[in-house]
Specification:
single chain, 403 residues, mainly beta, six-stranded antiparallel beta sheet, 18 strands, globular, disordered N terminus, disordered C terminus, Superoxide dismutase copper/zinc binding domain-containing protein, signal, superoxide dismutase activity, SOD_Cu_Zn_dom
Length: 403
């Protein structure tokens, strides 16, 4: 009987281990110039709880006649350093890639990059060069005159759990670094857009919280839902961004003290609907202490086709998207300056599109929400596993003693 009891304990503990946590991120490649020789594709970055290194799964394709002998160094933060297999590798230096017959599909393991803690690469950028800049590469692959050209980039964002590699179970415990640096999302149009859309969203630390501002070119002359989403993963139609960035118990609403301000989704920023006098460029400006700058790194951002009503209608199709990256502190951040100093903004947008210079705004540009931010979409997965193991262990011990 005691043997059977021990066997039951073994299987219970084994079941708990199967639910071990993992870390998962994705980097979707965006060409610098889509008409030039370049690359496209994505990188899945992950590890399970027992692994000591990160796996990078590359799925890359050449575009517009890119030569097969490309050697590009992945370099988060655009930092210079030796190759990963040198004696003192730089954290941001990754192996060269070599396009063969128009594709590169491979897996690499790295000891140094991390997906959690202060040195997490969530929110960092990976750059692809036209030649190798690795100090140990053959001379034939090095840049002419030592000046490589960046042909594509990607921002490392939280991966959508529905696309994670087989074998990863439990909860995604990847975290963004606590840097307190500004952040930026560069937006591109999705397949749902009827026209070319370009622009950016910036997140700046200010005394009263985080100032969120934006300037977007190509939006239709109406109000458009404007949200931070859970995952920093891009797809043709924006669906890989997942739902709004939120935690347990929050519900969707507009960023107004009159509409559930203290319990709304972290990602609920309302709408963008304030245009210049020619209704060519749309502007957004909103300051809030409901979120922190550290929480937005690696999240996704979406602009919707129609107005967010604050209920189940959040704005329809996603027509523009981007991944929120850590902004380079040595570069002056464009704050999306509106046409005039008295330009008025509106994030409720009850009247649809407005001329921001006519001062017909219906809501305030600041907020003192009382909510606090956990910085994740759900409760910490590691705590769940530890609690489960403790309960299983306690139950198993009592079971053995009783028998």
């Amino acid at each position: 009987m005691r043997f059977i009891s021990l066997l039951i304990v073994f299987f219970l503990l084994k079941s708990a281990i199967v639910l071990a946590d993992y870390q998962y991120a994705v980097c979707n490649i965006v060409p610098i110039d889509k008409t030039a020789k370049t690359i496209s594709g994505s990188i899945q970055i992950y590890k399970d709880v027992q692994s000591t290194s990160l796996t990078f799964d590359y799925n890359i394709k050449a575009e517009n006649g890119l030569e097969d002998d490309l050697g590009g160094v992945f370099n988060p933060g655009n930092a210079a350093g030796p190759c990963p297999d040198s004696q003192s590798p730089n954290v941001g230096s990754l192996y060269d890639i070599f396009i063969f017959e128009g594709v590169y599909e491979s897996s690499r393991s790295y000891q140094l990059p991390l997906l959690s803690g202060q040195n997490s690469i969530i929110g960092r950028a990976i750059s692809f060069y036209d030649v190798s800049v690795c100090k140990e590469s053959p001379p034939a692959l090095k840049a002419v005159n030592g000046v490589p050209t960046v042909i594509a980039t990607c921002v490392i964002g939280f991966g959508n759990d529905t696309t994670k590699p087989d074998g990863l179970t439990g909860s995604n415990t990847a975290t963004s670094p606590e840097l307190n640096l500004h952040a930026i999302a560069v937006l591109t149009a999705t397949s749902n857009a009827a026209a070319t859309i370009t622009g950016q969203v910036t997140f700046v630390n200010v005394g009263s919280g985080v100032q969120v501002s934006s300037k977007i070119i190509g939006l239709g002359k109406e109000a458009h839902g404007f949200h931070i989403h859970s995952f920093g993963q891009l797809s043709d139609n924006g669906s890989a961004l997942g739902g709004h960035w939120a935690t347990t118990g929050q519900t969707h609403s507009l960023p107004s003290t009159l509409q559930n301000s203290a319990t709304r989704h972290y990602g609920d920023l309302g709408n963008i609907c304030s245009f210049d006098s020619e209704f060519k460029n749309a502007y957004y400006n909103f300051t809030t202490n409901y979120i922190s700058i550290n929480g937005v790194y690696g999240r996704g951002f979406a602009v919707h086709a129609t107005r967010d009503l604050g209920d189940s209608n959040v704005g329809g199709a996603r027509i523009a998207q981007g991944v929120i990256a850590v902004a380079n502190p040595s570069v002056t951040l464009n704050l999306n300056t509106p046409p005039t100093t008295d330009f008025s903004f509106d994030n409720i947008c009850a009247n649809g599109a407005v001329d921001g210079q006519t001062k017909n705004s219906t809501s305030s540009g600041s907020e003192s929400g009382s909510g606090s931010e956990s910085g994740s979409d759900s409760d910490n997965g590691s705590s769940k596993i530890i609690s489960s193991l403790f309960i299983l262990g306690l139950f198993s011990s009592l079971f053995v003693l009783l028998l």
